[in-house]
Amino acid sequence: MNQETTDTKQPERVPIMQRIIDNPFLLLFIGVVVPTVFYVVWGIMELVTIPLAN
Amino acid sequence: MKTELFRTCPESGLQFHKPAENLMRIHAVLAVVMLLIGGLSALAVTLTRWPAVHLLPADKFYQLLTFHGVNMLIFWIIFFEIAVLYFCSSTLLKVRLATPRIAWIGFFLMVAGAVVNNLAVFGGNASVMMTSYVPMPANPNFYLGLILFAVGALIGCFVFLGTLVIAKEEKTYEGSIPLVTFGALTACIIAIFTIAMGAVILIPTYMWSMGWISHIDAAMYRLIWWAFGHSSQQINVAAHVSVWYAIAAIVFGAKPLSEKVSRTAFVLYIAFLQLASAHHLLVDPGLSSTWKIFNTSYAMYLAVLASMIHGLTVPGSIEVAQRSKGYTKGLFEWLRKAPWGNPVFSGMFISLIGFGFLGGISGVVMGTEQINIIIHNTIYVPGHFHATVVIGTTLAFMSLTYFLIPVLFRRQVFLPGLAKWQPYIFGISMMVFTLVMMGAGTLGVERRHWDMAFTDAALGFDYPASAYTLMGLVGLSGTAAIVGGAIFVLITVVSVFFGKRVESESNYGTATTRLLKAEPTITPAGGHEAAGKFGFAAPGTFAMAIFFLAVFVVYYAVNWKYLASVWPMS
User: Fold this and answer.
1) Which residues of B touch A34 (CB under 8 A)?
2) Considering only alpha carbons, which residue of chain B is nearest residue A13?
3) Model-wide pTM > 0.90
4) What is the ipTM of this complex?
5) In this structure, which of B30, B54, B143, B212 has its CB flanked by the most CB atoms within 10 Å?
6) CA angle, corner A37, sides to A34 and A42, nearest 5?
7) pLDDT tens digit string along B345-364?
8) In-domain check, residue B72
């Protein structure tokens, strides 16, 4: 097998950031997890730890 | 390979898949119906907040305010957004729509939800406003309608995602999806989070309204409800920014200044835009300052950065496209020679300016914990969101509609002379409306109270005369904006149902779903820099950005100074 044939068979390397941006389901995961953790879960933790009035 | 029915629009070159086209049409039509309903109630609300008119009694005011809020902020916009999702997937990727039958189920659920909710409000025992804070109860059908609508919209989002999968499998595009579709994907992702949060809070609230559970914690309700309520408006931001990019490409053949930067800005939206919901809770007890400041400042500013990137790159791309056509004199010939008589462009540009200068800057002020207290729960807040949602989103959607009437509906625009003026009538009066609302809010005029004179109240309060003047201007400018909205509805309805057919032929043909990839239409020789001036690719846009920054800094500083004066230290 010559060098030229080997080169043509190698797929073009896609940068990692582009692979992330091109994956709609990974973006969906980010778009659900980030606000759920920072806004919802953190907020709920703060509310449920309010001490009850005596 | 499966064969499908497609047609190519001879004017735009866009290809429509017949089932997708039918779904886009019906969603767009229902959106305009909701806009009409919301607009009629807007007139009653505006004329009541106008102190000299004070049209409605209290019960009718809150009923119609609920009607207005839900129809405008949820039904009109999300019906249109589902049409945008189908357009950005099936049409822009030149692929068949995934599962059209399931998409129709989603549509009928949305219609059923809108009808059930509106009937509940119309019945008079669901005047709880859009926020429907517990423990204020509404007729259970109010919540049920919202739940049905949300499930239908969620189905639309998954049909969109399915269409992306089909396009990738059938290789109807190469590399990454187009930027406009990527913006629609951003809107879709935010919508899925939003609808999930809606389910988390509205289903228990429905059960509470039915008497199946005894109690819903008010603080918990507000926390989760705003993850739904504010994020639903962030769907709009992502969607109307996508529409800006689309219109820049449609009218000018413009390419983004940098695809990478624009996509990164959309990723910032995906991760951080929803966190801005926290600014509604800045004075709520129980949540720490760390939570409030992280969510509204550190994280939200990343989303603000993204908006500023879009605000720079959309006019920047238009400037580059215009300069490449020879409009190179001075800083602003490209803008002077823009097609200001074309409502597709004029509406989009007014939307961009209004969203950035009025909605964007006021949003940052509201998201800053310290200066938020000056205007929290005043009429400044509706001033802000009318700038973002009405000038930003609604006007952008109106602009796109003028493009879609001949392309999607194959009809000529009715009264084209009036259509030229409509974005100015609507956009400029809405700008005045939001400015005077924010002015009145700065003077403390409350956000939701029916009567700013507090007639017969046990504890009276007198606003300064200037507050009454500003609220009078709210009434005048609001009425003018409603006239602008009515013109849009008139033109759209007559064009679509009674308008003259477009003369060119655009028949359906059986085609494979593997179609040619569209090529960019503008490629300035030597890249963007070759078309620029003073070493900048888009010097006019850069000058506007510096002006924007100056206004931003001055207004922000003025608010801190104002805070110092309302809270004197001794």
Assistant:
1) 270-272, 274-275
2) B175
3) yes
4) 0.90
5) B143
6) 145
7) 999 999 999 999 999 999 99
8) yes
